[in-house]
Design a protein that fits this description.
This protein is mostly beta strands. The chain has a domain at 30-110: Sandwich (Jelly Rolls), CATH 2.60.120.10. Helices cover 0% and strands 30% of the residues. The relative contact order is 0.20.
Length: 116
Amino acid sequence: MTGVRLVRAFDWRADPDPAFHHRHFRTSQLAPTRSVTADRIPIVFNSDVALSFVQPAADDQYFYRNAQGDEVIYVSDGRGVLESQVGDLDFGPGDYLVVPRGVLHRMRFSERPRGA
């Protein structure tokens, strides 16, 4: 099947207290999520950039395209392949994956991140 559809709208809410605070982001305490693209948990963001966290428990069955901006994905754990219209790219722990805006892609894991 081919087509384009909205999987989920991102509804990120800013901290109501805009004052600077020291923060400790305890990402190891966040629960695994279903989708590597639709279930990202925003950590910090503004109108130009977002840093989010995800620990996917399953592969997406669909391809994803970010029409708003480029994506830089840091792989802290797990292994797999990034499938895209420009080819496949193997990834593992410590890799950075750069996906330019508008490139159709999905991640397939051969080794799940710990905890997922």
